[in-house]
Structures are given as C-alpha cells and as structure tokens.
Amino acid sequence: MKYFLDEPTCPGEACGGKNPQNQGCTEDARTLEPAGGNPALLQLRYSEECQAVWARIERGNPGDVVTVEAAGGAKRSAEIEYGDDKFTSMVRVGGGEFRVTACAVSKTGGKSTYRHSCIRASEATAWR
Known about the structure:
Blueprint: E1 30-32, E2 42-47, E3 52-57, E4 65-70, E5 75-79, E6 86-87, E7 91-92, E8 99-105, E9 116-122
Antiparallel strand pairs: 1-2, 2-3, 3-6, 3-7, 4-5, 4-8, 8-9
C-alpha cells in the first residue's frame, strides 16, 4: 500500500540530500525530459513545494552514474547498482531563480550506448 503525504516533510534547505519519494516531493513534481538526443532517457524533476530538484536516468546499465547540480549550490550523484534506472537525492534550489544541470555518465567499458549526456534547466523552463 502506498501512502501519499499532504505536504512535503522537508521544504527548502531541509530537502537537500534527501530521497524525494520519502519526503513527499514527487506529489507536485514536474519533469523535463528532452524528446530527442536523449539516449539515457535522462530527466530533471522539480518540486516547487519542496524547492528542490533531482535527476533520474531511465535507460542506463549497472555502473552508470546520474548527477544533478545547482549552479552555486550542491551536487548529488547516484550509481545504478542493478536494473536500468536510478534517481539522485535532492538538491535545494530555493523559491526564486535557479539553474541546474543533470548528467548521465556511462560506466567505462559498460554496456550503455551513450558516453556522457547532459540537460540544463532553470525556473523558466517549460516543466511538464
């Protein structure tokens, strides 16, 4: 059984480094996923309520790494241990202007067909 939280448990600074699912930040999350030139199916997710972003890779392989970094802020990364997807913990972006970068980096000698793929976004991005 899945429980939904009415409000995030960690808005703002308290969300940094935490799991977005466990904190209720996926409830209002919007996504940026470029349609073309995105071999790893890399996504940036943004929760306005939590004032945080995180990155997700959906088409990777064990050993591949996904990262998210806020300009002038923190950077988080996560490695695929098994399967083909993984998401990072959150990076705080605050309630105003921000710029973030998410990257998928394949494991050297691994099975992925991409080497290094990045996407960039800001508060003005057309998040869906």
